[in-house]
Amino acid sequence: MRTICFYFQVHQPFRLKRYKFFDIGNDHHYFSEFDNKSIMRKVAEKCYLPTNQTFLDLINEYGDKVKIAYSISGVAIDQFEMYAPDVLESFKKLVNTGSVEILSETYSHSLAALKSKEEFERQVILHKKKVKEVFGVEPQVFRNTELIYADWIGEYIADMGYKGMITEGAKHVLGWKSPNYLYNNAINPKLKVLLKNFKLSDDIAFRFSNRDWEEFPLTTEKFVSWLNALDPKEEIVNLFMDYETFGEHQWAETGIFDFLRALPNAVFKHSNFTFSTPSDIVNMVDPVGAIHVPHPISWADEERDLTAWLGNELQDEAFYKLYNLYDKIKEIDDEQIWKDWLYLQTSDHFYYMCTKWFSDGDVHKYFNPYDSPYEAFVNFMNVLSDFIIRVEEKTKS
């Protein structure tokens, strides 16, 4: 079997409003209704609705020969319910075709796995319940926030009963190995691990409209020729990317939707590749061996490490000050405290504080509401200061 696994990350954070020092202790409303609604509607019109319709048309045309998977964060689902019910309905239509798999993740797209196993597992369970409630399905494969993975995180997921997990095919982890095979977790071999082919994924996600790219323009025929050039023994090509690739990162004017519409026909006509969901693969393919990842990896930047979120003193201080509240928060019975706690954990808040400006710098600017990482830090810490006051008051009462 030679197959393509298309997985898309669907996520939008609840963005903080401009929260000043003098708001601390006086204003407990942290999130910008205007920004969150306007950005959601913008992305819905440019990306979610047209891309969902494109995939629905392809599934209607080719039936179960076209298969895809989504990981939709809980905070994104919350915003669909609030601001874009038409988007949520379009995702439900896709799931109802039987050709679309919904993956599991942390509810708030958080970094909890790096700090608190208890909070991490709580969020995974919360997300699984939300997916069941909204889509009527139970996820079997897990995707951690930003594809963050290490052997011990995989062990957590295996213990929770998942069959598989997807992550980055990082060069420094793979060495001479190829990402185009199925592997298993080094601690618990029952968990199968799918690795992103970042070159072929990024050819679509980042380079598609780059006129300075030596392979520009990217046609479906060219892309399929690259698939055919792979070693015949390499049976899985995992194409993992942000869903906003279509229509937002790559505008409709670039031809990205034409490429997407034409790709299945080119694959079926000019190759022996099929399309599969992650669950199809973990159920049908035998792993070639264990993948050892002693230190956490992610999809981000050249290093494929955690430094996009936890790479400077600003991020580290915000991260540890937030998670140091957990022991107190878990003793509190207050729905609003828990909701704010959930939304404040979203990894984007730490991403905005990133001070790295290497070849991937523009990625850090995308959808960033702040003029500088220092502004992001000050705004987050002002909010966190007020949140700490509320937590302290609840623990005393």
Account of the protein in words:
This protein has 397 residues and is an alpha/beta fold. The chain folds into 2 domains: 3-291, 7-stranded beta/alpha barrel (Alpha-Beta Barrel); 313-396, no CATH class. 46% of the residues lie in helices and 11% in strands. It is built from 16 helices and 10 strands. The protein has helices at residues 33-62, 74-83, 85-96, 117-135, 151-159, 171-174, 198-205, 220-228, 256-270, 278-284, 313-323, 326-329, 335-344, 348-351, 361-365, 373-396, and strands at 3-10, 68-72, 100-102, 141-143, 164-168, 182-185, 192-196, 236-242, 274-275, 290-291. Helix 1 (33-62) runs parallel beside helix 9 (256-270). It starts with a strand and ends with a helix. The mean pLDDT is 95.
Brief rundown of the structure:
With 397 residues, this protein is α/β, with parallel strands linked by helices. It folds into two domains: 3-291, 7-stranded beta/alpha barrel (Alpha-Beta Barrel); 313-396, no CATH class. It is 46% helix and 11% strand.
Q: How is the biggest beta sheet arranged?
A: 5 strands, parallel
Q: Supply Rg.
A: 21 Å
* Number of alpha- plus pi-helical segments: 16
**Fraction of residues in β-strands:** 5-15%
Q: What is the architecture of the largest domain at the second tier of CATH?
A: Alpha-Beta Barrel
CATH topology of the largest domain: 7-stranded beta/alpha barrel
The SSE string, one letter per element, is EHEHHEHEHEHEEHHEHEHEHHHHHH
Counted up, domains total 2
The chain-level mean pLDDT equals 95
The secondary-structure class comes to alpha/beta
